[in-house]
Each structure stands twice: as structure tokens, then as C-alpha cells.
Amino acid sequence: MWLKPEEILLKNAFKLWVTEKGNDYFVLQRRRGYGEGAGGLTGLLVGTLDTMLDSTSKVAPFRILHQTPDSQVYWSIACGGTKEEISQHWEWLEKNIMRTLSVFDSSDDITSFVQGKIRGLIAEEGKVSCGQEDDPEKFREALLRFEKWFDLPQKEKLVTYYSCSYWRGRVPCQGWLYLSTNFLSFYSYLLGSEVKLVISWNEIWRLEKTSNVILAESIHVLANGEDHFFSMFLHLNETFLIMEQLADYSIKRLFDKETFQEVPSLSDPLQITKRGLEMHARNEQFRAFFRLPKEENLMEVYESFLWVPFSHFNTLGKICLSESYLCFASQDGSQCHVIIPMREVIGVEKPDRSSRALTVCVRGKRALRFSEVRDFERLANAIRRRCGITASPQHSASTEGLFLSTNANQPSNEEVALMVGQKDSSKAVSTEALMTVFHPQDTENMDPKMLKEKMKEQSWNIHFSEYGRGTSMFCTKKTRDLIVRGVPEALRGELWMLFSGAVNDMATNPGYYSELVDQSLGTSTLATDEIERDLHRSLPEHPAFQSDTGISALRRVLTAYAYRNPKIGYCQAMNILTSVLLLYAKEEEAFWLLVAICERMLPDYFNRRIIGALVDQAVFEELIRMHLTQLTEHMTDLSFFSSVSLSWFLTLFISVLPIESAVNVVDCFFYDGIKAILQLGLAVLDYNMEGLISSNDDAEAVTILNKFFDNVTNKDSPLPQTVQQNSVGNNNKASSLLKVDISDLIKEAYEKFGDMKSEEVESMRKRNKLYVIQTLEDTTKQNVLRVVSQEVKFSASQLDDLYALFKRQHFLSCYWTMNSPVLLHHDPSLAYLEQYQLGFEQFSLLFSLLEPWSLCSGKDAFFLWAFRLLDENQDGLINFREFCCALDILYSGTLTNKLKFLFKLHQPPGKITKKRSFCFTPTGRGKVDLQAYLKQWQDEILKKEESIKDLPRINQAQFIQFSKTLYNLFHGDPEEESLYHAVARVTSLLLRMEEVGRRLQEPASPLKSTTSHTQALLEGCLPDGEASSTPESSFNTPNTPITLVASSVPQEIEWSFAFEQILASLLNEPVLVRFFERPVDIPARLDHAKGSQLKAKTNM
């Protein structure tokens, strides 16, 4: 065990210890009387002494000391009761510490570092052994340190903490890494040097495990253009998993606006725990491996043996139990796995205590025997409880006899229907696959292709007889071999449903598709318009989609899915995929296959930014560098392959291969997932290696690949020429190049690149996702800045800083709440200018940090009026352009524009003529005419500045409040008193002008009392007047109209002022002109906002 470092002086010590290992910094010693050389007088004396001492005084027989170079002082840092235990500590020191110590110049620095590291390890071991929930006191202490050191808002939830080293250049700083819901934080304090680091998860570009000469294993974090390395973790893999989960959670919440309503442990950002994150990661891995619905969570895991009847041996693996499924995977994850829906279980035999075994009986006269289950009775009861069945009365009854007595009277066709997940209540519009309708198989035809097709079917029938058929079929290496050779046309739909997991979705949601069709047909949305546009572009050469039957089925499936998942709606390429699905699956089956593809197998592919496809392209580039080194040496820039391969991933090669060949690729995809597409992509590049290397430019390389795809054939396809066709994207005539059979190409892909594991692909996906999303965000930022820069006078760097502040404030509104307005009103179909917006509360916080004046009172009212003025479409949200335009006026605007801005603040809602209005009424899923949007935007840029004559007049109450706002602006100004007097003179002059004008029109009007009373309210900014006109009393939300009430002003006589009158009067006061024309130190305001943004949130 690690020990708290204690000083030991060895110079005059007894020779009680023998040194067994040593180096410049550490010594491993054995106490005499133990191990080899235990004899002798000294050994006997030591052994006797240790035996006589009680347990609290005994000395461990092995220890490790840290020696300070050129000194007689040693520090005890570890001890052990056995040679094996102390050797593990020694190996850890050699692997993690030795390389690091060489970078220090001072002996004192080395000792301080070692002591700090050992203390961190001791605390880490204590935390791991007790657990956060079991030892709340330690966690409470860590939480207090976290709050003290980083000054983050109290709502910020600390998830966990670890002892580690943070590298500043070549020197490590030993300290603590704190992982909270929204931030990664590190703190270190050694020898008077403090290191503090706070990084938002949404700012991270890369998060990966790395190793180099100095660092044996470390975690690399790239954020804001800076690299950060953390090393010497006691549990590095656990730490990295939590960091990965928190980064992914932040990305989904903040960028994708996901609310996690279906994941209770993650739905509230104030209640995130380490255990909840680990459970979520485990559930995701469980569902992905077994292709289960998103509602399923891993409940229990048992280690056991499964009897494999076709191989006649027991295979070791794990039973994974969820609420609705019993799954088994062999230890290597590839040899054998099976999924048993609880709806298919018809009995559980009484457990066999001698072998700790139980037998699960399923439909189709089959049984699965699990043995050596540690808690077999608990498992049996759990299965019975989920299935609602009782124990079998006869344990001695043979499995075969049980099969014969169960379901013996059920019709065979009903059994088959249950296997593929069909229900009698299902009301699919079309009950036949389009290939069955447009190309029925001729059973009398015995040409060579049909004979080979029959042989394939026979191979699969043999497989079914050995491995089972339907949802509880064993999936093994033999299954994959059959897939690689090609699936028979008659079985394709059934096997697609099975391997994708869509069979389970459909079985558990009977009638769901029919309801969606009834609800969605006839609706008009942006998605339905796009669907109608693309219907006749989907496999247009296939007879099925030259008729109303195929087109109508395609329309129903796509429209129903867009209605089901408005977040995705409809995306190009979905029509191509769905048309192929309809060829081999019934309409309802095609719908559930589309659900499986979009929501489970290709996550984030079909949305506005196609993030999933871009991530897989990044993975593809990484694999090219790993496996095709010859190609990477010739083509250093692999971005070309990203642009070329996009359609490969989006359409599963359907758009580049002839349809009869592409379906073989789809077969492999449904069995192996994206791994099959990546393998095939590598095989295509490897096959064309020579041509690509010799190509002179990208255009020539594209031509080489297109010609190759045109010459890929399927020699075993039984489809007639009327059905076979060229690839969707390439209708050129076949060239004279050699033909390549799709089966041979797929086989080569598996042989050369099939060794990659699905777990490795998922890890690469996670590693590249952060970088892809941040790259897209950076592109979005450049687009926004390019547009906004045309309307404001800020420099490029200032605009960049403002964007960073605005974006962070947007995220702050989502950090600690589940009901943020920007989350509730998020619409991914909006243009990039609208993606980041602020509600009133967040706008007030940021505006208060950036506004150029120091308001002494009435801040809330001022911010609310400004928010109302800037919220041009009255949706309760302010976008970046609106925010920048307001600041640009206050920072760089002319005196006239600044006064006009203040004047318009006090106008009631509805009377200000909006220069820009981008209020598009959404129909269904945000139906926005983007072309009209952009055209209107361009017109507004060119529009002339608003004339001051267009502004409406302000009445008594508004003028009073306007004057008080001017008074509030001058607080703390060096010329504060002169400014007050100037405003008083202006208001007095305006009131006298109004009185003269009124007398000329109505000589008999008694205006003197009214004018004098109003002037009394204005001079000195009387408290009673302010209290009577405070807007908080009349509204609470930014969308509520402001009603100014001047109760102390007589209302029988109405008077008002035009903006020209106020402007002319103010121009007569030089002190006021100087105040409004005084330049603003913009860099200072931006620096102040950067340093105070989080504190402003903390002090709310």
C-alpha cells in the first residue's frame, strides 16, 4: 500500500533491511528475516522481534523508499506484505514516475513532486475503495475545495475528481482534476506556484488517450487552440470514460439541444452523477451490440456457459438481461451471440442445483441451456417475472418432450409470422414487397443463376435448422460467411429485419405505422414538400418506381417517418435508402428498417449538418492512414476521399453501384453495421491503388473510381435485365475495364480489413466527433461574422470576441436548467444566424457587462426596454446580429443614432416601424423559405437608414421616463453635475416651447400648472415620479407591452414631443454632446466581460 511520505534517516540505523532493487530515485528493500537469506543471527533476531510485536506495531516485510539525490535523507512511500504486492508498486513507479523526474533540475522539486503524487494516490485509493456514495464526507471535502478554488456558480454539479499531473511544457504539476457537468477543472499548488485551469466541455476539440517517450499514458485535451496533457492517473481508463461521457453529454445538450427526457439519470444537469454516466455508457454499449430499442436498459449481468447444440460444446460468455430481452454473447464477442425477446419465452425449467443450470424454452420448439450461473435461481425468477410464467412442474422432463407438448397445436404459418415479428393487428397499407409484385420468382425456371439461388436458399435452410430461425437465432461466424456470399432474394427482407433489430421494434408497436400514416398524410410541411420533389428521383429506372404503387408506398413511409421524428424530418438520401428497402420488405417493415437505420445504426446521419456521415468520413481517413500507407505517402491530403466517399456512407453505396450489387452491401451493413461500409471503402481504394497513385489530379481520380463502380457486377443475381440497372449516380456506358464481382469484392474486404473490431470503430467515432462538430461550429461562426461585419463597425478581432461571449452566454442559459427558452424553442431548420439566441435573462447579464454607461438605477427596466426593441420578430429571443447592431450604435454610433436608440426605447410596442422583420410562420416542422429569407436579408442591408421623421412622438409619461433615463446614464461621470444641469435646461426649454405652442393654438388653456408640475418631476429625478413609472409594476416578461403611467401628471391635457425637437435641444448643450460623442474603449469592455461573465452568473 502507498504510505504518507515520512522522513527516515538511514545513516546510523541498524542493518535491519536488505536492498533488492534501486535506481537514482527509489529503493526497494526487504526486511531481514523474510524471503531469501532469512537465516543467520540477524535474520533470527529480526524475525523474533516482529513476532513479539502486536499487529499495530508490526513492520511490513517490504518497503519502497524515495531518496533525495546527494542526501542521506530518505522518505518511505510504500510498503507491502508480499513480494508480488511491492513489485506492483515498483513497476508503477518505473512506468509512470521515472521518466518524469528526469525533467526536474532541482532535488527539492523532485522530492516535492514525488510527495505530492503519493499523497494524491493515497486519496485516490481511499475514494475508490469507499466510493462517493459510501463516503460522502470525502466527497463533501472535495466539493468545498472545488467551490473555493474555481468560483463557479453554486449550481455547477461536481461529478467526480481524480489525482493526476498536469503538464506545463516539460514540467508536471501534481494536483487534482475535477470533472463537473459543464467544466473540466484542474488545480495545483506546489512551492508557492498555483496552477488553475477551467475548460468548458463545449470548447473541447479533441479528447484522446496518448503516449510518448516522457508520458507512458496520458489524456490529451485540445481546447481553444491549446493542448493540455494529464497523466499519472491511478485509474486512467475510468477517468477517460467519464470525461468522454461528459463531453458527449455536453455536445448533445448544447449543440443538438437534446433534453434526455428518456434518460432520467441525465435529464437534469443538476443531478448528474458518476454512476449515472457509467450506467448510461453501459446501456448504450448494450443496445448497440444487440441492436435493441432505445427503451431497453441493461438490468443484470451473469457469467455463464451456453450449450451450443450445433458445435456440441459449452461456450463461456455473459448473459445480459433487460426488461424485455435476454441476450448472450460469448467471451470474444464474435463467436456466438443470441437475442431472446421475453415475448418469445414460453417456459423456464426448474434450475438444476448440481450444475447451477437453467433451461429457457422459446417458441419454435427450441431451448437454450445456461450452466454454471452463479446466481441461477435469481436469474430464473427474473425471467419468469418478466414473462409472466410459472416454473415448469417437471424438472426431469426432456427438452424435446417439452417442445413437442408446447405450441403443438399452433399453425406453422403463424409460427413463421411470429418469428419475423408480424402481428395480426398490423395494418400496413401495402402487404407485399415491391420485388415480389414486380418480379415474382419463376419456380419452373432452372437456369444456372436460379439454380445457384436455390442452392443459397438451401444453405440458409440448413443454417436455420442448426442455428434456429427468427428472433432467437444463433449468430456465429458461419452466419457472417453466408452473408458475405450473398443473401437469397426471397430471404433478404426477413434477414434485414432480424439483423437490424427492426423485427423487435415492429413486434412491440403493433398498429403504430398505420396510425402514423393516417395522421401524417395530407399534412403540409417543409419535409413533405421535399419528399414530393424527390419521389420520382428514387431508383427511377426500376419498374416499381415507374408506377403509382411504388411511388405511393415510398411517399407513405417517408411522410410517416418525418411525422414520427420531426427533428430529422426528411433528408436527401433517405429516399434512395427507403426505395431499396421497399423492394425487399413490406411497407411497414421498410418503415421500421428506416427507423433502425436513422436512429440506431447511422446516428446523426440524416439531419441538417449530417454530422454522423462527416464523423465516419473522419474515421475513414484515419483507417486509410493505418491500412493504406502507400496511398497516404502519395496523397498527403486525404480530404479528397472525404468528398468522394460522402455518398458511399449516406446511401450505403446504393448511389454508386448497380442496384443488384448494392443490395449485397446492404446485407453486410445490416449484419456488421458501419464497419462493413468502412471495410468495403478500404477495399475499393486498395483495388484501385495503382490508378489513384498515378493520377495527376482529383478529377482523374474521380474518373477512375466511377469507372470501377460501373464495372462492378453481380454474376449470381437472378434479376432480369429489366430490373438490373446502372448505379443511380452513374449512367454512363460500361467501359472496357475488367468486370469485378461484388461477392469477390466483399470477400476481399473482409479478408484484408475484417480484423478491425466494432469497439475500435466506436472509439474512433467518439474521438472524431468532437473535432467534426467544432469544425462545423467554426464554419458557422465565420459565416455569421461575414454577414454581421457588413452592418457594424467592429474590427474582425472584436467581432470574434463578441461572438465568443454571445455563444458562451447562450450556453450558460442551458447549463443549469432543463427548461431554457433556447432549448424549448430550438429549431434546427433555422438559418445559422438564428442558431444561437438569448432570452431576456441572459441578454440582461451580457448587456450589463458590455453597455458603455454606468446606470445608477432602473437597470432592469432599461434592459427590458432594450430587449423589447431588439426582439424584432417578438419571439422572446435575441440573435447575434440584433445584439451586435445595438452595441455598435452605443459604441460607434453618432450622437443622433445614440439618442434615437434611447428615444425608441421608450416607445410603446407596435408604434415603432421595424426596419427588419424576419418572422416566418412555421407550418409543421419549421417551414421556412430560406431563399426568401436570404433575399430579404440582402435587401435590408442595402436599405437606407431610417429617417428621424418616421419616428412617432412621445407623450408626457414617455418623455418623463426618457429624461430619467438620461439622468441615470451620467452616474459616476466626471462631469456628472454639469450633465444633470444640462438635462434640466433641455427639459425646461422643451416644456416652455410646448406651452408657447399650446397657447398659440388654444389661448384659454390653463397650461401653467401642468407645465410647472411636470418640470418639478423632471428636475432632480424625483423618487415618487420614478416609482410611479417603473415598468416592473406593469409587466414581468419581455413579450408583455410596457405601460408607462405618470399618475402625478394631470391627464386632461395631452402634449407630446417629436424626436427632432429633443435632438435640437440637446445639441445646444456642449456637455451633452461631448458625453455622447466620447469614444468607448471597446477592448477594455470586452476584456471586462470575458473576466466577469461566469461571475455574473454566479452572483445572480
From TrEMBL:
It is found in: Cytoplasm, Cytosol. GO terms for molecular function: calcium ion binding; GTPase activator activity. Keywords: Calcium, Cytoplasm, GTPase activation, Metal-binding, Repeat. GO terms for biological process: glomerular filtration. PROSITE patterns: EF_HAND_1, EF_HAND_2, TBC_RABGAP. One of its GO terms (cellular component) is cytosol. The keyword Cytoplasm applies. This is TBC1 domain family member 8B.
